[in-house]
From TrEMBL:
Keyword vocabulary terms for this entry: Membrane, Transmembrane, Transmembrane helix
Species this protein is from: Nonomuraea solani
Molecular function GO terms recorded: D-glucose:sodium symporter activity
UniProt cross-references to PROSITE patterns, sorted A to Z: NA_SOLUT_SYMP_3
Bilayer topology: Multi-pass membrane protein
Name of the protein: Solute:Na+ symporter, SSS family
Transmembrane among keywords: yes
InterPro entries: Na/Glc_symporter_sf (IPR038377), Na/solute_symporter (IPR001734)
Highest taxon in the source lineage: Bacteria
Similarity comment: family membership: Belongs to the sodium:solute symporter (SSF) (TC 2.A.21) family.
Keyword RNA-binding: no
One GO CC annotation: plasma membrane
Matching Pfam families: SSF
Membrane-spanning intervals of the chain: 6-27, 47-68, 80-101, 122-144, 150-172, 184-202, 237-256, 287-308, 328-356, 376-399, 405-427, 434-453, 468-488, 525-542
Amino acid sequence: MRLDVNLLDYALIAIYFATVLAIGFAARKRISSSLDFFLAGRGLPAWITGLAFVSANLGAIEILGMAAQGVQYGAMTVHYYWIGAVPAMVFLGIVMMPFYYRSKVRSVPEFLRRRFNGATQLLNAIMFAVAQVLIAGVNLYALALVIEALLGWPLVVSVVVSAVIVLSYITLGGLSSAIYNEVLQFFVILAGLIPLTVLGLIKVGGISGLFEKVRQSSLGEAGLHTWANVNGDNPMQAHWVGIVFGLGFVLSFGYWTTNFAEVQRALSARNTNAARLTPIIAAYPKIFIPLVTVLPGLIALVLFNGWGQGQDYNNAIPLLMRDLLPNGVLGIAVTGLLASFMAGMAANISGFNTVFTNDIWQAHLRPDQEDRHYLLVGRIATVAGVAMGVGTAFIAAGYSNIMNYLQALFSFFNAPLFATFIVGLFWRRMTPWAGFWGLLAGTLAAFVSYFSYKAGLVDFGTELNASFWGAGVAFAVDVVVSVVVTLVTTSKPVEELRGLVYGLSAVNLEDDALAGDARWYRSPVLLGIGAVVLAALAYGVIL
């Protein structure tokens, strides 16, 4: 599947790569401490961190994966956005970011150490590090697919070259480089996907033509609806309980509120209000992103044949690029894809190097070293994370739909973490060892649920639905174990929980508000409510 690129397309790609590296070199001059490297010195405005927040998620997984979901499951894929993202992003901004930001933690595992104990921190840090390496492999694999289509290089060569490209600017400028590149990448991604969607709609006769062709496809009328037949008789074979509880609550809130690869962007904001606004600003473009991810998937469904029977679902976007885009526009689209993959992998690797350095190396292996020691370890961890991502890329290659693989990972690592976090946040009685054993039990329950499905012991219908139910099981087991362990162990003194538990404010909390923060358009609550209402209204179009 070679793309018919010419000199103009290559020139556009080369200009983009030169810009990315230039940003990395410019950001390197501002790195003088580990705080600069890992959290951009906590000095960025909300609009920068907000765009970086959504761009970090708009990676290979989002673009190739959601288009693949659109082909396989139809309009129900929008659940990942309107119920599976926006409410959780708003909750993160309004409720949870004040705890993260004002506690001055550098990561989610560090927050768990303060709320619970070092064992809980280490367990979560190891789980997070493994998850980020696996997810980085997904982004790297998807990037390699595009390079393979573009240049005809073998997959192995494409994976290695892609890894070197991403490694270069993260190692140079740390999180500052990653964030500023993510802002650039957000606009480059849209510049590539919007023409693809418009030309695809023209090809199929507009929205009405697309809907009619979907009705005649293998998905049928069910491919155009979101909440119709949510009793299991739909392309996802999903029940409304799995959608609402498994995806809308456990998987969604577990990912958006505890995934440090995302939270890290908000922690780099200049004050508490900017940190709270970060995920809420990101929620608004998130509502409309299905127009350039899911919609192209539906277009690919009706334009190409053989899906799931020799035709890989992950090829939806590359096939559309090959057949619809003229040269020049093709170069922009390829650049947009490359930008998206790099943004996603940069988020994974910057999260990995921070957690490894702060929560494993500094907290448990080599404490009390000079700051420059940890800055060096962070750079070494960046190289190691990318190297391991190269290896895990070939795990992702075994899935015809990388989104199914990703959702399984989220059910393993994010769902139980959210249970531990949310119970500990609102129940001050929860004990340190309840945090550890609840998290461990919930994670094991997710693995047992998923592999029971793979072994044929339990029938969830589809692999995606198995992840929904697995997330729910992990959450429930985590909560039950946490309650039981709490009843037989000792809680922390109230004074140690101030600023870490809802209703217990820190005594020495400083007001870091800036001029203008009180204006209505900087209100996290008002803007958050607006985003949730807009997402709910969006469902009215394709109920």
